[in-house]
Amino acid sequence: MKKPVTRRSFIKNSALASLAIPIISSSLFSCKSEAKKEDTDSEITSKKLSILILGGTSFLGPHQVAYALSRGHSVSTFTRGKTKPSVHAELFDQVEQLIGDREDNLKALENRKWDVVIDNSGRNVEWTKATANLLKDNVGMYMYTSSTGVYYPYLTDNISEDIKLVIEMPEGLTENEKYEQEYGVMKANSELAAINAFGKARTIIVRPTYMIGPADKTDRFIYWPIRLAQGGEILVPGKKEDPVQYADVRDIAEWFIRLAENKQHGTYNGVGPKTAQTMQQFVKEAAKTFDVKSTFIMVDDYDFLIENKIYYSVPWIMGDEKNYGSARISNSKSIEAGLTLRPLTHTVKDTYAWWTSEALTEERRQKFEGNPNTLLSKEKIILENWKAKTS
Ligand SMILES: NC(=O)c1ccc[n+]([C@@H]2O[C@H](COP(=O)([O-])OP(=O)(O)OC[C@H]3O[C@@H](n4cnc5c(N)ncnc54)[C@H](OP(=O)(O)O)[C@@H]3O)[C@@H](O)[C@H]2O)c1
Question: Over 90: is that where the pLDDT of 319 sits?
Fold first, then answer.
Protein backbone atom coordinates (compact mmCIF):
# COMPACT_ATOMS: atom_id res chain seq x y z
CA MET A 1 0.00 0.00 0.00
CA LYS A 2 1.29 3.43 -0.89
CA LYS A 3 1.86 5.72 2.03
CA PRO A 4 0.79 9.31 1.47
CA VAL A 5 3.69 11.60 1.96
CA THR A 6 3.03 14.94 3.49
CA ARG A 7 5.13 18.01 4.10
CA ARG A 8 6.01 17.06 7.68
CA SER A 9 6.58 13.36 7.23
CA PHE A 10 9.17 13.87 4.53
CA ILE A 11 11.07 16.13 6.92
CA LYS A 12 10.81 13.43 9.57
CA ASN A 13 11.96 10.77 7.12
CA SER A 14 14.87 12.86 5.96
CA ALA A 15 15.86 13.83 9.46
CA LEU A 16 15.86 10.20 10.82
CA ALA A 17 16.12 13.62 11.01
CA SER A 18 8.65 38.65 34.11
CA LEU A 19 9.59 40.92 36.01
CA ALA A 20 7.89 43.86 37.69
CA ILE A 21 9.63 46.72 35.94
CA PRO A 22 7.72 49.79 34.74
CA ILE A 23 5.80 49.28 31.51
CA ILE A 24 7.82 50.41 28.53
CA SER A 25 6.82 53.82 27.27
CA SER A 26 4.49 53.61 24.30
CA SER A 27 6.48 56.29 22.50
CA LEU A 28 9.48 53.99 22.48
CA PHE A 29 7.70 51.58 20.24
CA SER A 30 4.35 52.73 18.98
CA CYS A 31 3.36 50.71 15.93
CA LYS A 32 2.03 51.53 12.52
CA SER A 33 -1.15 50.00 11.29
CA GLU A 34 -0.37 46.62 9.81
CA ALA A 35 -1.81 47.53 6.44
CA LYS A 36 0.52 50.49 6.02
CA LYS A 37 3.22 50.09 3.41
CA GLU A 38 6.78 49.92 4.59
CA ASP A 39 9.74 51.92 3.51
CA THR A 40 11.59 49.31 1.48
CA ASP A 41 14.59 51.25 0.27
CA SER A 42 17.90 50.49 1.82
CA GLU A 43 18.14 53.81 3.61
CA ILE A 44 17.99 53.48 7.32
CA THR A 45 15.19 55.67 8.46
CA SER A 46 14.64 54.36 11.97
CA LYS A 47 16.50 55.03 15.15
CA LYS A 48 19.17 52.54 16.11
CA LEU A 49 17.53 49.55 17.71
CA SER A 50 18.72 47.16 20.36
CA ILE A 51 17.68 43.72 19.17
CA LEU A 52 17.63 40.46 21.11
CA ILE A 53 17.54 37.29 19.04
CA LEU A 54 16.43 34.11 20.78
CA GLY A 55 18.56 31.68 18.79
CA GLY A 56 20.50 33.60 16.17
CA THR A 57 23.38 31.25 15.42
CA SER A 58 21.80 28.72 13.07
CA PHE A 59 20.25 29.46 9.66
CA LEU A 60 18.01 32.53 9.79
CA GLY A 61 19.77 34.22 12.71
CA PRO A 62 23.24 34.99 11.26
CA HIS A 63 21.64 36.76 8.29
CA GLN A 64 19.51 38.85 10.66
CA VAL A 65 22.64 39.66 12.67
CA ALA A 66 24.59 40.74 9.56
CA TYR A 67 21.81 42.96 8.23
CA ALA A 68 21.01 44.48 11.63
CA LEU A 69 24.67 45.34 12.29
CA SER A 70 25.04 46.78 8.78
CA ARG A 71 22.20 49.16 9.60
CA GLY A 72 23.77 50.29 12.85
CA HIS A 73 21.64 48.31 15.28
CA SER A 74 23.03 46.45 18.28
CA VAL A 75 22.39 42.74 18.65
CA SER A 76 22.31 40.27 21.54
CA THR A 77 21.76 36.55 21.01
CA PHE A 78 20.45 34.02 23.51
CA THR A 79 21.46 30.39 23.01
CA ARG A 80 22.91 27.43 24.89
CA GLY A 81 26.26 28.19 23.22
CA LYS A 82 26.25 24.96 21.23
CA THR A 83 25.43 25.97 17.65
CA LYS A 84 28.11 27.90 15.77
CA PRO A 85 27.20 30.05 12.75
CA SER A 86 28.42 28.81 9.35
CA VAL A 87 28.01 32.25 7.78
CA HIS A 88 29.00 35.67 9.17
CA ALA A 89 30.91 33.99 12.02
CA GLU A 90 33.35 36.92 12.04
CA LEU A 91 30.56 39.34 12.97
CA PHE A 92 29.76 37.61 16.22
CA ASP A 93 32.56 39.53 17.97
CA GLN A 94 30.24 42.50 17.72
CA VAL A 95 27.31 40.57 19.21
CA GLU A 96 26.52 40.23 22.90
CA GLN A 97 26.22 36.46 23.25
CA LEU A 98 24.00 35.54 26.18
CA ILE A 99 23.97 31.95 27.36
CA GLY A 100 21.10 30.07 28.96
CA ASP A 101 18.48 27.50 28.06
CA ARG A 102 14.90 28.11 27.01
CA GLU A 103 13.98 24.94 28.81
CA ASP A 104 14.93 26.07 32.30
CA ASN A 105 17.38 28.99 32.46
CA LEU A 106 16.35 32.49 31.33
CA LYS A 107 18.48 34.31 33.93
CA ALA A 108 20.55 36.14 31.31
CA LEU A 109 17.37 37.83 30.06
CA GLU A 110 16.23 39.13 33.45
CA ASN A 111 16.33 42.89 34.21
CA ARG A 112 17.40 43.73 30.68
CA LYS A 113 15.81 46.08 28.14
CA TRP A 114 15.72 45.80 24.36
CA ASP A 115 13.66 47.50 21.66
CA VAL A 116 12.87 44.25 19.88
CA VAL A 117 13.04 40.54 20.56
CA ILE A 118 13.09 38.09 17.66
CA ASP A 119 12.04 34.60 18.72
CA ASN A 120 13.70 32.27 16.18
CA SER A 121 14.19 29.29 18.45
CA GLY A 122 10.55 28.83 19.44
CA ARG A 123 9.93 25.13 19.26
CA ASN A 124 7.64 24.79 22.22
CA VAL A 125 4.63 26.88 23.28
CA GLU A 126 5.85 27.00 26.89
CA TRP A 127 9.18 28.48 25.76
CA THR A 128 7.43 31.34 23.97
CA LYS A 129 5.02 31.88 26.89
CA ALA A 130 7.94 32.09 29.31
CA THR A 131 10.10 34.49 27.27
CA ALA A 132 7.19 36.68 26.19
CA ASN A 133 5.97 37.05 29.78
CA LEU A 134 9.47 37.64 31.08
CA LEU A 135 10.21 40.33 28.49
CA LYS A 136 6.85 42.06 27.98
CA ASP A 137 7.52 45.01 30.31
CA ASN A 138 11.11 45.51 29.19
CA VAL A 139 11.02 45.01 25.44
CA GLY A 140 9.06 47.06 22.90
CA MET A 141 8.19 44.46 20.31
CA TYR A 142 7.99 40.67 20.06
CA MET A 143 8.68 39.17 16.64
CA TYR A 144 7.79 35.51 16.46
CA THR A 145 9.24 33.31 13.71
CA SER A 146 6.37 31.05 12.89
CA SER A 147 5.83 28.96 9.75
CA THR A 148 3.34 28.42 6.96
CA GLY A 149 3.04 25.04 8.72
CA VAL A 150 0.25 26.72 10.75
CA TYR A 151 -1.97 26.30 7.70
CA TYR A 152 -1.76 22.50 7.76
CA PRO A 153 -3.87 20.86 6.41
CA TYR A 154 -3.49 23.07 3.34
CA LEU A 155 -6.93 22.58 1.85
CA THR A 156 -7.39 25.71 -0.27
CA ASP A 157 -5.39 27.97 -2.50
CA ASN A 158 -4.36 31.60 -2.10
CA ILE A 159 -4.07 31.03 1.66
CA SER A 160 -3.98 34.37 3.43
CA GLU A 161 -2.91 35.32 6.94
CA ASP A 162 -6.44 35.66 8.31
CA ILE A 163 -7.55 32.08 7.66
CA LYS A 164 -8.68 30.24 10.81
CA LEU A 165 -5.91 28.06 12.25
CA VAL A 166 -6.08 24.70 13.94
CA ILE A 167 -5.09 25.37 17.57
CA GLU A 168 -6.17 22.12 19.16
CA MET A 169 -4.92 18.73 18.10
CA PRO A 170 -7.90 16.91 16.54
CA GLU A 171 -8.87 13.67 18.26
CA GLY A 172 -8.47 10.21 16.81
CA LEU A 173 -5.35 10.85 14.77
CA THR A 174 -2.87 8.12 13.96
CA GLU A 175 0.72 8.61 15.15
CA ASN A 176 1.72 9.76 11.67
CA GLU A 177 -1.22 12.16 11.41
CA LYS A 178 -0.32 13.58 14.84
CA TYR A 179 3.20 14.17 13.64
CA GLU A 180 1.90 15.99 10.58
CA GLN A 181 -0.30 18.28 12.60
CA GLU A 182 1.65 19.02 15.77
CA TYR A 183 4.25 21.43 14.37
CA GLY A 184 1.57 23.76 12.99
CA VAL A 185 -0.50 23.56 16.18
CA MET A 186 2.64 24.35 18.24
CA LYS A 187 3.49 27.34 16.02
CA ALA A 188 -0.13 28.62 16.06
CA ASN A 189 -0.28 28.44 19.87
CA SER A 190 3.15 30.06 20.18
CA GLU A 191 1.89 32.96 18.05
CA LEU A 192 -1.00 33.33 20.49
CA ALA A 193 1.36 33.18 23.47
CA ALA A 194 3.38 36.09 22.04
CA ILE A 195 0.23 38.11 21.30
CA ASN A 196 -1.27 37.38 24.73
CA ALA A 197 1.81 38.76 26.47
CA PHE A 198 2.69 41.69 24.19
CA GLY A 199 -0.69 42.55 22.68
CA LYS A 200 -1.44 42.68 18.95
CA ALA A 201 -0.01 46.19 18.56
CA ARG A 202 3.43 45.09 19.77
CA THR A 203 3.67 41.72 18.03
CA ILE A 204 4.87 40.74 14.57
CA ILE A 205 4.38 37.21 13.35
CA VAL A 206 6.30 36.07 10.27
CA ARG A 207 5.31 32.74 8.76
CA PRO A 208 8.05 31.61 6.35
CA THR A 209 7.63 28.81 3.86
CA TYR A 210 10.75 26.77 2.99
CA MET A 211 13.75 29.02 3.44
CA ILE A 212 16.70 28.27 1.18
CA GLY A 213 20.16 29.79 0.98
CA PRO A 214 23.57 29.82 2.65
CA ALA A 215 23.80 28.19 6.11
CA ASP A 216 20.87 25.84 5.57
CA LYS A 217 21.40 22.87 7.86
CA THR A 218 18.57 20.78 6.54
CA ASP A 219 20.19 19.67 3.24
CA ARG A 220 16.73 19.77 1.70
CA PHE A 221 17.66 22.08 -1.19
CA ILE A 222 21.36 21.49 -1.85
CA TYR A 223 20.67 18.85 -4.56
CA TRP A 224 19.79 21.69 -6.93
CA PRO A 225 22.95 23.85 -6.61
CA ILE A 226 25.17 20.75 -6.77
CA ARG A 227 23.49 19.23 -9.79
CA LEU A 228 22.93 22.46 -11.69
CA ALA A 229 26.61 23.31 -11.30
CA GLN A 230 27.56 19.92 -12.80
CA GLY A 231 24.97 19.98 -15.59
CA GLY A 232 24.15 16.97 -17.79
CA GLU A 233 20.96 14.98 -17.42
CA ILE A 234 19.21 16.08 -14.26
CA LEU A 235 16.37 14.19 -12.61
CA VAL A 236 13.53 16.52 -11.70
CA PRO A 237 10.90 14.87 -9.53
CA GLY A 238 7.33 16.04 -9.89
CA LYS A 239 4.77 17.02 -12.45
CA LYS A 240 5.73 20.03 -14.48
CA GLU A 241 2.66 21.97 -13.36
CA ASP A 242 3.25 21.30 -9.64
CA PRO A 243 3.44 24.70 -7.89
CA VAL A 244 6.50 25.53 -5.77
CA GLN A 245 7.15 28.23 -3.16
CA TYR A 246 10.31 29.14 -1.27
CA ALA A 247 12.14 32.21 0.01
CA ASP A 248 15.80 33.11 0.21
CA VAL A 249 16.65 33.10 3.92
CA ARG A 250 18.35 36.49 3.51
CA ASP A 251 15.19 38.07 2.12
CA ILE A 252 13.27 36.87 5.17
CA ALA A 253 16.06 37.87 7.58
CA GLU A 254 16.44 41.37 6.18
CA TRP A 255 12.70 41.93 6.04
CA PHE A 256 12.46 41.06 9.75
CA ILE A 257 14.82 43.93 10.53
CA ARG A 258 12.98 46.38 8.25
CA LEU A 259 9.64 45.39 9.80
CA ALA A 260 11.15 46.22 13.20
CA GLU A 261 12.61 49.51 11.94
CA ASN A 262 9.25 50.45 10.49
CA LYS A 263 7.46 49.59 13.73
CA GLN A 264 5.07 47.39 11.82
CA HIS A 265 2.79 44.92 13.53
CA GLY A 266 0.62 42.04 12.38
CA THR A 267 1.00 38.65 10.76
CA TYR A 268 2.74 38.04 7.45
CA ASN A 269 3.47 35.07 5.20
CA GLY A 270 7.18 34.90 4.32
CA VAL A 271 6.70 33.39 0.89
CA GLY A 272 8.25 33.72 -2.55
CA PRO A 273 8.61 33.87 -5.45
CA LYS A 274 6.63 37.01 -6.13
CA THR A 275 4.40 35.37 -8.71
CA ALA A 276 3.26 31.76 -9.01
CA GLN A 277 5.90 29.31 -10.26
CA THR A 278 5.72 25.70 -11.38
CA MET A 279 8.40 23.09 -10.81
CA GLN A 280 9.31 23.20 -14.48
CA GLN A 281 9.72 27.00 -14.39
CA PHE A 282 11.77 26.67 -11.20
CA VAL A 283 14.40 24.38 -12.75
CA LYS A 284 14.62 26.41 -15.93
CA GLU A 285 15.19 29.60 -13.95
CA ALA A 286 17.61 28.01 -11.48
CA ALA A 287 19.66 26.52 -14.35
CA LYS A 288 20.52 30.03 -15.58
CA THR A 289 22.90 30.27 -12.61
CA PHE A 290 25.61 28.20 -14.25
CA ASP A 291 27.08 28.29 -17.72
CA VAL A 292 26.79 24.55 -18.29
CA LYS A 293 24.45 22.50 -20.42
CA SER A 294 21.66 20.73 -18.55
CA THR A 295 18.86 18.52 -19.77
CA PHE A 296 15.95 18.05 -17.42
CA ILE A 297 14.16 14.76 -17.16
CA MET A 298 10.92 15.23 -15.30
CA VAL A 299 9.92 12.10 -13.44
CA ASP A 300 6.24 12.77 -13.01
CA ASP A 301 4.94 9.37 -11.96
CA TYR A 302 4.28 9.62 -8.22
CA ASP A 303 3.99 5.83 -7.83
CA PHE A 304 7.41 5.38 -9.42
CA LEU A 305 8.87 8.10 -7.17
CA ILE A 306 7.37 6.43 -4.09
CA GLU A 307 8.84 3.07 -5.16
CA ASN A 308 12.21 4.84 -5.29
CA LYS A 309 11.61 6.62 -1.97
CA ILE A 310 11.77 10.08 -3.53
CA TYR A 311 9.22 12.17 -1.69
CA TYR A 312 10.73 15.63 -1.98
CA SER A 313 13.46 17.80 -3.31
CA VAL A 314 12.68 21.23 -1.89
CA PRO A 315 11.07 23.33 -3.14
CA TRP A 316 9.15 20.40 -4.62
CA ILE A 317 7.33 18.01 -2.35
CA MET A 318 4.94 15.29 -3.31
CA GLY A 319 1.49 16.53 -2.51
CA ASP A 320 -1.62 14.84 -1.28
CA GLU A 321 -5.02 16.34 -0.55
CA LYS A 322 -3.86 17.76 2.79
CA ASN A 323 -0.93 19.47 1.06
CA TYR A 324 -2.92 20.80 -1.89
CA GLY A 325 -2.31 24.44 -0.87
CA SER A 326 1.15 24.13 0.69
CA ALA A 327 2.71 25.97 -2.26
CA ARG A 328 -0.36 28.10 -2.94
CA ILE A 329 0.07 30.63 -0.14
CA SER A 330 -0.60 34.32 -0.67
CA ASN A 331 2.28 36.77 -0.32
CA SER A 332 0.42 39.90 -1.36
CA LYS A 333 0.18 41.36 2.16
CA SER A 334 3.88 40.72 2.74
CA ILE A 335 4.99 42.27 -0.54
CA GLU A 336 2.87 45.29 0.37
CA ALA A 337 4.64 45.34 3.75
CA GLY A 338 8.10 45.43 2.19
CA LEU A 339 9.12 41.81 1.54
CA THR A 340 11.54 41.86 -1.38
CA LEU A 341 12.68 38.70 -3.16
CA ARG A 342 16.03 38.38 -4.88
CA PRO A 343 16.46 36.44 -8.15
CA LEU A 344 16.59 32.66 -7.78
CA THR A 345 19.93 32.58 -9.61
CA HIS A 346 21.50 34.61 -6.77
CA THR A 347 20.21 32.13 -4.21
CA VAL A 348 21.48 29.11 -6.12
CA LYS A 349 24.87 30.71 -6.81
CA ASP A 350 25.43 31.83 -3.21
CA THR A 351 24.22 28.55 -1.75
CA TYR A 352 26.64 26.66 -3.98
CA ALA A 353 29.49 29.03 -3.05
CA TRP A 354 28.72 28.47 0.67
CA TRP A 355 28.48 24.70 0.22
CA THR A 356 31.89 24.51 -1.47
CA SER A 357 33.56 27.06 0.84
CA GLU A 358 35.78 26.59 3.88
CA ALA A 359 32.85 27.54 6.09
CA LEU A 360 31.94 23.86 5.88
CA THR A 361 34.18 20.94 6.69
CA GLU A 362 34.78 18.17 4.17
CA GLU A 363 33.18 15.84 6.70
CA ARG A 364 30.01 17.91 6.68
CA ARG A 365 29.83 17.82 2.89
CA GLN A 366 30.56 14.11 2.81
CA LYS A 367 27.78 13.43 5.28
CA PHE A 368 25.36 14.56 2.58
CA GLU A 369 27.19 13.68 -0.62
CA GLY A 370 28.14 10.21 0.62
CA ASN A 371 24.68 9.37 1.95
CA PRO A 372 23.35 6.55 -0.25
CA ASN A 373 19.74 7.45 0.48
CA THR A 374 19.64 10.91 -1.09
CA LEU A 375 18.31 11.82 -4.51
CA LEU A 376 21.83 12.97 -5.33
CA SER A 377 23.24 9.48 -4.77
CA LYS A 378 20.35 7.60 -6.34
CA GLU A 379 19.79 9.91 -9.31
CA LYS A 380 21.66 7.90 -11.98
CA ILE A 381 20.11 4.56 -11.19
CA ILE A 382 16.62 6.03 -10.88
CA LEU A 383 17.05 7.74 -14.23
CA GLU A 384 18.13 4.47 -15.83
CA ASN A 385 15.07 2.73 -14.43
CA TRP A 386 12.83 5.58 -15.53
CA LYS A 387 14.14 5.46 -19.06
CA ALA A 388 13.68 1.69 -19.16
CA LYS A 389 10.11 2.09 -17.92
CA THR A 390 9.13 4.88 -20.31
CA SER A 391 10.99 3.84 -23.47
N1 LIG B 1 14.18 26.34 7.82
C2 LIG B 1 13.02 26.61 7.27
O3 LIG B 1 12.82 26.43 6.07
C4 LIG B 1 11.91 27.18 8.12
C5 LIG B 1 10.65 27.37 7.54
C6 LIG B 1 9.65 27.94 8.31
C7 LIG B 1 9.89 28.32 9.60
N8 LIG B 1 11.12 28.11 10.16
C9 LIG B 1 11.37 28.56 11.53
O10 LIG B 1 12.45 29.46 11.49
C11 LIG B 1 13.05 29.52 12.80
C12 LIG B 1 14.54 29.65 12.66
O13 LIG B 1 15.05 28.47 12.13
P14 LIG B 1 16.63 28.19 12.19
O15 LIG B 1 16.84 26.97 11.39
O16 LIG B 1 17.36 29.41 11.86
O17 LIG B 1 16.90 27.97 13.73
P18 LIG B 1 16.60 26.70 14.64
O19 LIG B 1 17.47 25.59 14.19
O20 LIG B 1 15.20 26.43 14.76
O21 LIG B 1 17.12 27.26 16.06
C22 LIG B 1 18.40 27.06 16.41
C23 LIG B 1 18.85 28.21 17.34
O24 LIG B 1 18.22 28.11 18.63
C25 LIG B 1 19.20 27.91 19.66
N26 LIG B 1 18.62 26.96 20.63
C27 LIG B 1 18.24 25.69 20.39
N28 LIG B 1 17.79 25.13 21.52
C29 LIG B 1 17.86 26.08 22.50
C30 LIG B 1 17.53 26.10 23.89
N31 LIG B 1 17.03 25.03 24.52
N32 LIG B 1 17.74 27.25 24.57
C33 LIG B 1 18.27 28.35 23.96
N34 LIG B 1 18.60 28.38 22.64
C35 LIG B 1 18.39 27.25 21.93
C36 LIG B 1 20.41 27.35 18.90
O37 LIG B 1 21.63 27.62 19.57
P38 LIG B 1 22.24 26.53 20.61
O39 LIG B 1 22.18 25.22 19.93
O40 LIG B 1 23.62 27.02 20.84
O41 LIG B 1 21.38 26.60 21.84
C42 LIG B 1 20.34 28.12 17.58
O43 LIG B 1 20.87 29.42 17.69
C44 LIG B 1 12.52 28.31 13.55
O45 LIG B 1 11.56 28.77 14.50
C46 LIG B 1 11.82 27.49 12.49
O47 LIG B 1 10.72 26.78 13.01
C48 LIG B 1 12.14 27.55 9.45
Answer: no
